[in-house]
Design brief:
Length: 115
């Protein structure tokens, strides 16, 4: 589990990314395509073409960290936008990493009566 500092931003690179890229290539994408500083403490998420692999890039204050996750079944829910990026909350990132559709999560029904 990745524990992000409070107030940390999470950016998804919309579309798909060549998953052969390492941390340097992904940092360049964050800087040039997403127009964000890869060393500013934000977390950047990139998804492969098939949708079952995700890579996360994060600067923890000492160096770049590269995390990856592959789903055995299904694929990560990924948006398509004209801007090429989407901002998520840390809670939405947690749902995304669990394979849950973070855009429309099923809410637990609130009880009507106590007891």
């Amino acid at each position: 589990m990745i524990v992000l500092p409070s107030g940390a931003r999470v950016w998804l690179a919309c579309g798909y990314t060549d998953m052969r890229k390492g941390m340097d290539g992904l940092a360049m994408l964050a800087q040039q395509v997403l127009q964000e500083d890869p060393f500013g403490g934000a977390l950047f998420a990139f998804r492969g073409k098939r949708g079952g692999l995700i890579k996360l890039l994060w600067f923890d204050g000492q160096g770049l960290c590269l995390f990856s996750k592959r789903l055995e079944k299904g694929h990560f829910q990924w948006p398509v936008t004209e801007t090429g990026r989407v901002s998520l909350t840390p809670a939405q990132l947690s749902m995304l990493l669990e394979g849950i559709d973070w855009r429309m999560p099923a809410r637990v029904r609130r009880p009507e009566l106590a007891g």
